[in-house]
Amino acid sequence: MTIKNTVTSHIRLNTILCLLCFFPHQAWSEDYKTVQVGENIHTTNPCAPQLIAKPQKITAKDPKQTNPPQHIEADSLLQPSKNEYLLQGHANLNQPGLVVLSDEAVLNKQTQTAVFNGHVELHQPELIITADNARVNNRQETAVLNNTRYQILPSRTHGKSKNIQIDQKAQQAALARASLTTCKLNSDQSVDWDLKFDELTIDNKTRRVVGKNTTLYFKDIPIFYTPYFDYPLDDRASGLLFPEIGSYKSLTQNESNQYVKMPYYFNIAANMDDTLTAIPMTQRGLALENEFRYIARNNDITHGAKITLTGLQDNLTASEGIVSSDLDGNLIYGDKRSERWRASIEANQNWGYGFSSTLNWDEVSDESFFADIPVQNNLKTATQKQRNAQINYKDNAFSAYIQLLSYLRLQNAAINYEKRPEIGASYAKYLGNFDFEIAATVTDFVTPVAVTNKYEAVRFHTAPTLSYQIQNSYAHLKTTLVANQTQYNMRDDGFNEPNQNTITRFIPQMAVRGGLIFERDFEFNKQNYIQTLEPEVQYLYTPYEDQSNITLFDTADRSLDFSNLFALNRFTGADRIGDTRQVSAALTSKLLSPQGRPIAEAGVGQIAYLEDRRVTLSNIPETDKVSDIFVKLGLNFNEWYFASTTQLDSHDQHLTNANTRLKWQRNDDLALLNHTLNNQGTAFETEMLSFGGYTKINSKWDLGIYSSYDLREEDFYEMQLGLRYDSCCWAAEFIAERTQLENGLYNDGIQVQFELKGLSSSGSKFKQALTEKLNF
């Protein structure tokens, strides 16, 4: 017969109540969604490990209650002596915040001890412990649990220990022969990986966990050992991150070199961290890379930065010199040096009161650094990298900035003008249908190296604009007047033409642009849509002004875009204001959902020239009466996204320029394609086809591919193949790549990443790189 007795015990199990304080539940927990229903905890994560015991219903603690009541139940409840209670058979001790189950329990109110024997279970809201037996001394504030298993909820991280000794006064817990894992148990009761410690000390006072003789086992095979293992109990933990193994090949090598990236993460503060990575490389030696990050906020002031430093003593360049290649692919051997380094900073600040700033700057020891050292793959074949520092100010209608624009010169870098500095300001005023805007810039153009026949100057440019606009749901009309005023103060560097120290230019512009919007209801496949028809026309007049004596500092032809039909200047930058008297016309049709969401779009447009254009980049007049034909197509429907802009020759309609992007995505499956064609039929023709995809073969295997193919040279510029295995508690990713080098050879590389879930997570490196490459 079950005897249910409730007694008020003088033994307060505060020591047991604080067991949870010692376990690193924050450091090891993952974002599992859990729901507690009655006495069961259910999780939506199919990878969550099994529960080591059935969770019990736990009464919430009342912080105002110093001596909460205890409820004791058992099959048999005896009192052998005045100070002792003996519970036998399904003993159950229940108090707010704690449930203890055991086969037998002995409570002694005189010695303030409790002994639990048999199958012992301790349940707290976020912790379950099972043990063969447990002994609690409340007077000494100690507890000993033998042959234990523990599990942290809701992540269900679990482990074993020969025994757990708790010293509440010292706020320490010592686990002997302990293990820890986030994996589910296999059918043979094994786990895919776990950490095993000879001794594990959890210090709640210092908020640290220290393990001695720690070994990481994968598939019961030891793969990593450290005599000392130290990490914090709080959210982020300092410690080793998973390494990356790879290979690469530089210009002078026929065989690939191997490297290993071994990062160590330092959790400095909640808003600050640091990662130190050791990169041992065959032939070259050991490189060290340090990445420091921080973000801070003080009222309206926010600022953050990432600072990266890399350095090594390069054995290979010390013996053969820095190697680069010329435009024909011939190798050039430079100075022999061993010290090689790079420094990088990315920073963003919001200083309040309308001020903000950005800084993106890189420096390297030599132009071949990124081609030789595998620290930033997207720069290994780059010729240059833009860098800038800028301060901004904005106050309602007024804004201003000052920036320094430069280029990090790498292999075969072109000599581009740099802005040192550029100062700009703009102001806008709106009065009814009238808009007034004025923008002014002062730019000091300099060259990064001393070259001949490269002029330098300070350019002052203002462009006050007055416009009048009428717009409603079915039509719009806008008239614009612009006054372009420019002055160049040429620097006396010995290359300027005589009497050309100051050049001034004034060019007005006038444009009238209008359009109509027609709509009709449209039904297709029993679905309702809205179809629009939008004709648009613009008249633009810009008088001729001879500008052949002005150097092209930052001016070029516009890249392919349908909106160029209505641009006020056919050039970018301010060194050329194109003379013209033209009429631009376009006809666009859109397919919208009943809610107005764009589904499909098609447009065609052309410019009719009423006179020849004498201002050109080559100083050769353009005499065509009409421009090329521009066509745009777009689709955004369910799983498909398509966008294309093409330029057709006006005489025979052959394709001259094109930019086409196609994307298909369904759940985790992804396919991307990008095709670009420039200057077809000329000596400067280029045509590239980039395509890639990522698919889930089954629940554990993912496959990815990327390729960039030069259609004119009929050669692959870059190829990548990624294969990823992803199980519940570990993942591995293999990436093989081939990149064409400057000398026509190929860099064949391999990267291998390994990830143990719960220790760290890096995600799919290949999938992230794929979306960045194709710019979706």
UniProtKB/TrEMBL annotation:
Gene3D superfamilies on file: Lipopolysaccharide (LPS) transport protein A like domain
LptD C-terminal domain residues: 339-680
Signal peptide (UniProt feature, chain positions): 1-29
Keywords carried by this UniProt record: Cell outer membrane, Membrane, Signal
Subcellular location, record wording: Cell outer membrane
Alphabetized InterPro entries for the sequence: LipoPS_assembly_LptD, LptD, LptD_C, OstA-like_N
Domain Organic solvent tolerance-like N-terminal per the UniProt entry, residue ranges: 100-206
Short name of one Pfam family: LptD
Domain of life (superkingdom): Bacteria
Family assignment from sequence similarity: Belongs to the LptD family.
Record function comment: Together with LptE, is involved in the assembly of lipopolysaccharide (LPS) at the surface of the outer membrane.
Subunit structure: Component of the lipopolysaccharide transport and assembly complex. Interacts with LptE and LptA.
The name this protein goes by in its record: LPS-assembly protein LptD
